[in-house]
Specification:
By secondary structure, the protein is α/β, with parallel strands linked by helices. The chain folds into 2 domains: 66 residues, no CATH class; 130 residues, Rossmann fold (3-Layer(aba) Sandwich), CATH 3.40.50.620. Helices cover 44% and strands 10% of the residues. It contains 7 helices and 5 strands. It has a 5-stranded parallel beta sheet with strand order 3-2-1-4-5, with helices on both faces. Helix 2 crosses helix 3. The protein is globular and about 55 Å long.
Length: 217
């Protein structure tokens, strides 16, 4: 098997692991977590337009991946995209200060409490390769709710863009896999089982040089 084909096979295995395949149903709130992928905002808006929740919340300030590419907080940009797709102002909530996934959850919960909204059921929207880590983080910081998780329905082959090239995506999702493995011990997530073949795929890709987004400490 050629190197490029092998990389693709290993990356697909990790990509598939990150998906939770939740079956969506009507909830009280759709919560989109900010990121460098504006397709997340469009997908969250489409879920709202499909009637899956009465309110749509965008969460995110400026993170490591967006502070140099967006000129405003992620949540503000995401809300603009939602409005363009037809979500009315009265349905939108914005949390523009969080800088990582844990803060997305903590700050969003705080904002909802401030306005007197206490959702019991939530759809959590993130990038495809962050579904599992978003879920594990949410359950750590908001354990009373077991969220449904969704992401833009895009295959690994079709996911890369000029702004999110293939090699960057592979580096990022290996970094997320490493965080799923190590963050529970740091109090950032609930534990998630990682099959041996998935972790082995990551180790092989790391050996091939896909190590740019690993935690080093």
């Amino acid at each position: 098997m050629e190197r490029a084909e092998r990389i693709e096979t290993l990356a697909e295995l990790i990509w598939d692991y990150h998906h939770l395949h939740h079956r969506l149903e009507k909830v009280d709130l759709i919560l989109a977590l900010g990121s460098n992928d504006i397709r997340v905002a469009a997908h969250a808006a489409d879920l709202w337009l499909a009637g899956l929740a009465p309110r749509l919340m965008m969460s995110g300030g400026s993170g490591k991946l967006t502070e140099k590419i967006f000129d405003r907080p992620e949540a503000i940009l995401f809300a603009e995209i939602a409005r363009e797709r037809g979500v009315p102002e009265e349905a939108l909530l914005i949390e523009p200060d969080s800088t990582n996934t844990g803060e997305n959850i903590i700050f969003s919960r705080r904002r909802l409490e401030e306005v007197g909204l206490l959702p019991r059921r939530i759809i959590l929207v993130q990038k495809p390769y962050m579904e599992r880590r978003a879920y594990a983080t949410f359950r750590k910081f908001w354990p009373e709710i077991d969220p449904l998780v969704s992401s833009p329905p895009i295959s690994f082959a079709d996911y890369p863009t000029p702004q999110l090239p293939r090699d960057l995506v592979i580096n990022l999702m290996i970094g997320d896999l490493q965080r799923i493995r190590h963050y529970p011990a740091r109090g950032f997530q609930i534990p998630q089982d990682i099959p041996d073949n998935v972790w082995g795929a990551a180790e092989e890709l790391i050996a091939l040089g896909f190590d740019r987004h690993l935690i080093r400490d």
